[in-house]
């Protein structure tokens, strides 16, 4: 704590504070530059995030061919046959008549109950309830040592072999069978039987055999080795249907033809007619969303690079803020933060490229956005924003969805730039890269981007300047302290002299 003015009566602290304010002016200017640079850095990063988000949206909508291949289906009997487009590139029409649905193979073992009327389970001399039976170990059921089972079901490439220790429970064995084989198995407490059904439909039977090489026969122990007879098994069957006059079969009731997924639901319900058409509303929705996102991006970026710079409104220091109201600070900083990206060449170049790609024909085609009713707004103040003639766009989607798709999604090559969405994303990525080089991203090390290095330079300048200010302030305090001491000594001498003169009179 420093106290001055005891000898002189001067307010030393405030005098030095006022003198230091003049010395702080250059430091304040550096601090203002650093603050403005931070605002600029934040705006670059925000712009980069917004560009990336817009790029992702475009890629996920009009950047996908599937967006333009969406179909509506007209089906005469949807209860008998379901049809939906999955990867179709053309239209689909005709008739289907289902003769037989595909079914699953199934199999059951013999009952563990004592009899049809006696629902007790007695195995290996032990009596179990249904719950106890499921939680019993193989050893409890009289299967000692390692045991094995082999299961082969329709729709699987080969039999699956499983081995179990006798400490495994019936429940864990069935869970393993369900997880690793092509069948679903469960113990039915109502019949006392283990039932097995194929996970896939299709012709064939479920084959279950016991272990080999001296291992216990688990199939026999679980009463699943009974002969395949109508009494304890059901063969799977293929679906039989006639498609546009062609009688054919499938192992599943759900299959794909020409990019359309067909689901057979009922047999012997007569011919079912169908036809597809472009889903104009859904495609329109995606294209309109693209145009809205594009226009929003254009508006925001143009506003940013044309934002005025108010040179009379510099960033406020902490001292200046102390004397201002909150609303005054807000209004001041609104102007002080303006113009951080004014006339930025990277953004301006990107906007120019965007305007060009929206008016040019797509490489490899004879079409442009104009051909589907999308054109730049003629008012130059709109800076190339797009407008849609919905009648023309609907007509293009309905009559030639492949043309619309090509305009947006045609692949790029060594000689062709590709569709609008492809070029759009490429331009966004290039701009992102340039801005990241300049402004980095959240978490970037300062030395890895241009503005970060400049910011670091300002921080070092501020640090050195503050050290010099401390030295200057200490020097002032020493000078004023020396003056105080000198005046104190003079006063003491004067008092002594006066005392001596007064005493001699």
From TrEMBL:
Top-level taxon of origin: Bacteria
Domain Flagellar hook-associated protein 2 N-terminal positions: 8-104
Entry's localization field: Secreted; Bacterial flagellum
Alphabetized UniProt keyword annotations: Bacterial flagellum, Cell projection, Cilium, Coiled coil, Flagellum, Secreted
Family: Belongs to the FliD family.
Assembly notes: Homopentamer.
Protein name: Flagellar hook-associated protein 2
């Amino acid at each position: 704590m420093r106290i001055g003015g005891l000898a002189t009566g001067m307010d030393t602290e405030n005098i030095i504070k006022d003198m230091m304010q003049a010395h702080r002016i250059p430091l304040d200017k550096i601090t203002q530059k650093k603050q403005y640079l931070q605002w600029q850095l934040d705006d670059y990063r925000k712009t980069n995030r917004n560009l990336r988000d817009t790029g992702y949206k475009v890629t996920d909508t009009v950047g996908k061919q599937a967006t333009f291949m969406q179909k509506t289906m007209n089906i005469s009997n949807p209860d008998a046959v379901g049809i939906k487009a999955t990867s179709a590139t053309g239209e689909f029409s005709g008739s289907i008549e289902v003769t037989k649905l595909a079914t699953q193979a199934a199999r059951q073992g013999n009952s563990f109950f004592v009899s049809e009327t006696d629902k007790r389970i007695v195995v290996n001399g032990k009596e179990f309830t249904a719950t106890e039976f499921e939680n019993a170990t193989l050893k409890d059921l009289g299967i000692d040592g390692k045991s094995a089972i082999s299961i082969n079901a329709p729709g699987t490439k080969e039999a699956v072999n499983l081995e179990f220790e006798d400490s495994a429970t019936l429940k864990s064995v069935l869970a393993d069978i369900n997880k690793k084989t092509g069948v679903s198995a469960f113990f039915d407490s109502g019949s006392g039987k283990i039932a097995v059904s194929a996970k896939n439909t299709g012709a064939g039977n479920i084959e279950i055999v016991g272990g080999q090489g001296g291992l216990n026969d688990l199939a026999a122990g679980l009463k699943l080795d009974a002969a395949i007879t109508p009494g304890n098994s059901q063969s799977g069957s293929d679906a039989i249907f006639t498609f546009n006059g062609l009688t054919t079969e499938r192992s599943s009731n759900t299959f794909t033809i020409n990019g359309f997924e067909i689901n057979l639901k009922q047999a012997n319900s007569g011919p079912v007619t169908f036809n597809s058409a472009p889903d104009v509303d859904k495609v329109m929705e995606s294209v309109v969303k693209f145009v809205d996102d594009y226009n929003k991006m254009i508006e925001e970026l143009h506003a940013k690079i044309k934002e005025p710079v108010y040179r009379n409104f510099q960033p406020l220091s902490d001292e200046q803020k102390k004397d201002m109201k909150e609303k005054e600070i807000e209004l001041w900083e609104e102007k002080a933060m303006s113009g951080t990206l004014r006339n930025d060449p990277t953004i301006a170049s990107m906007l120019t490229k965007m305007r060009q790609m929206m008016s040019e024909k797509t490489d490899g085609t004879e079409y442009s956005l104009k051909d589907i009713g999308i054109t730049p707004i003629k008012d130059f103040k709109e800076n190339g924003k797009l407008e849609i003639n919905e009648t023309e766009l609907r007509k293009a989607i309905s009559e030639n969805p492949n043309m619309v798709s090509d305009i947006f999604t045609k692949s790029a090559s060594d000689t062709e730039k590709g569709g609008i969405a492809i070029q759009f994303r490429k331009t966004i990525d290039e701009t992102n890269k340039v801005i990241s080089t300049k402004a980095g991203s959240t978490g970037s090390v300062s030395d890895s981007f241009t503005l970060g290095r400049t910011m670091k330079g300002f921080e070092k300048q501020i640090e050195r300047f503050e050290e010099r200010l401390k030295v200057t302030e200490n020097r002032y305090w020493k000078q004023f302290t020396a003056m105080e001491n000198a005046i104190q000594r003079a006063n003491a001498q004067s008092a002594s002299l006066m005392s001596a003169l007064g005493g001699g009179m």
